[in-house]
Design the sequence.
């Protein structure tokens, strides 16, 4: 067995392979209870050691620690460099940060060759990279074709703007993305934000820049809108280069979570386009394990984490649907938890999408800003009737709801009538499929609102104890 792990920056995680099979993968935060846990928690380490310890013969780390420290010295992060923390395990192999991202994307895909695009805040030194990927004698080969190094960074730039607008950096970039729909186009602001790439943004936006370019005078929504435009420009240029090496593109790094940009990039890709459901640093743990293994992985679905063995499934499905019809909202914590930042049915808060009051109700429960939208989950065979544009099973793209459904499904629409659609097929390893089938049978609506089973600032529910605590604290029924 091979254990891969990532830690030291944010979103620490572990992945375990048994040959090509992914037998476990989880975020550290789900075990510690600390959102975006940067280190492997004692709880996760103990769980993994107890379950797999004697069988693991390789330990793969997702980046090169000494190379990373050289960049930290250059950046003046002396406290970080000279207060080292011991890794959770002693690595038998280490890999470059961006190569781990590329491997997580390529070796989980069903492709024999592709260009891998990786865009994030920062690896050791690299912030953007393109790789030509293929298999030779059953082993994955990665040829780096392009890279951009620190301090230039699309990810740090976007994170700095997120922080400027009062949101948590390396956490609430997705909220900043959602704000863009409320902003007005401003070409002078776009030009000003392009100038920001000339700065070292590791510690946020320099005040002299804000003073010189009157950034204080702009609404946060307009900054978000301009940032989204510039981000898409930058990514389009990178994807144009990537197409030189393959018609197929796999995409990794934290910036790959920007589903608005992904929808536009999708149209640029002449072949297949694959984004693993956990493309950020947590997913780098799986990439490190994949590199140590060498060959293609047997990717089936993202349900790879801590398993809750609930009561009889048929009875639970009936209970969930009956509760939704009566109370409009409930939680589900059943089966293995999702590996990735998005709930896809096994750790979900579900609601009836048809009422005008549901969106505000769920935002109140989750303590979120009122403007924020929720995602719809839909039976795969009905998706085309309700939505247009790219969509898939992992909420990686933004679609448009067809006009006839705007008034009927207000809870899952953003201000521009867009939505991040999750299709649920018959082969998905989640109780959500059966819930949707029964919900459709009883209501003639194949759509439910689906959001993560957590409160803003907390990790998703992981264990049965977490589910009980959530139900008691927030007075929302959780089926587990």
Sequence:
């Amino acid at each position: 067995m091979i254990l891969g792990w990532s830690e030291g920056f944010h979103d620490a995680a572990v992945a375990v392979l048994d040959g090509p099979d992914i037998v476990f993968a989880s975020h550290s935060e789900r075990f510690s209870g600390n959102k975006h846990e940067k280190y492997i928690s004692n709880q996760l380490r103990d769980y993994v050691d107890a379950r797999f310890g004697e069988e693991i013969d390789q330990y793969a780390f997702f980046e090169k620690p000494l190379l990373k420290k050289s960049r930290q010295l250059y950046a003046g992060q002396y406290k970080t460099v000279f207060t080292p923390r011991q890794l959770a395990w002693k690595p038998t192999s280490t890999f470059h940060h961006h190569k781990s991202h590329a491997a997580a994307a390529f070796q989980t895909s069903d492709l024999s060759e592709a260009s891998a695009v990786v865009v994030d805040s920062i690896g050791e030194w690299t912030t953007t990279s393109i790789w030509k990927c293929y298999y030779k004698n059953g082993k994955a080969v990665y040829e780096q074709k392009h890279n951009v190094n620190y301090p230039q960074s699309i990810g740090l730039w976007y994170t700095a703007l997120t922080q400027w607008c009062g949101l948590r950096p390396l956490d609430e970039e997705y909220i900043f993305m959602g704000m863009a729909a409320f902003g007005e186009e401003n070409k002078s602001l776009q030009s000003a934000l392009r100038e920001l790439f000339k700065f070292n943004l590791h510690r946020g936006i320099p005040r002299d820049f804000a003073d010189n370019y009157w950034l204080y005078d702009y609404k946060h929504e307009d900054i978000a809108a301009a940032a989204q435009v510039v981000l898409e420009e930058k990514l389009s240029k990178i994807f144009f280069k990537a197409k030189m090496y393959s018609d197929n593109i796999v995409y990794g790094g934290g910036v790959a979570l920007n589903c608005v940009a992904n929808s536009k990039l999708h149209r640029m890709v002449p072949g297949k386009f694959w984004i693993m459901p956990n493309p950020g640093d947590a997913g780098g743990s799986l990439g490190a394990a994949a590199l140590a293994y060498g060959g293609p992985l047997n990717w089936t679905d993202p349900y790879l984490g801590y398993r809750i063995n609930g009561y009889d499934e048929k009875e639970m499905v009936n209970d969930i649907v009956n509760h939704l019809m009566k109370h409009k909202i409930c939680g589900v914590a059943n089966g293995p938890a999702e590996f990735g930042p998005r709930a896809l049915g096994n750790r979900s808060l579900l609601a009836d999408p048809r009422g005008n009051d549901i969106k505000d109700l769920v935002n109140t429960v989750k303590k979120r800003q009122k403007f924020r939208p929720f995602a719809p989950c839909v039976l795969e065979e009905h998706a085309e009737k309700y939505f247009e544009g790219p969509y898939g099973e992992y909420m990686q793209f933004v679609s448009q709801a067809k006009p006839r459904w705007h008034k009927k499904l207000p809870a899952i629409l953003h201000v521009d009538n867009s939505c991040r659609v999750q299709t649920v097929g018959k082969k998905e390893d989640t109780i959500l499929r059966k819930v949707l089938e029964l919900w459709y049978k009883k209501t003639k609506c194949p759509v439910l609102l689906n959001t993560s089973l957590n409160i803003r600032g907390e990790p998703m529910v992981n264990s049965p104890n977490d589910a009980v605590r959530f139900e008691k604290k927030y007075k929302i029924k959780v089926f587990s």
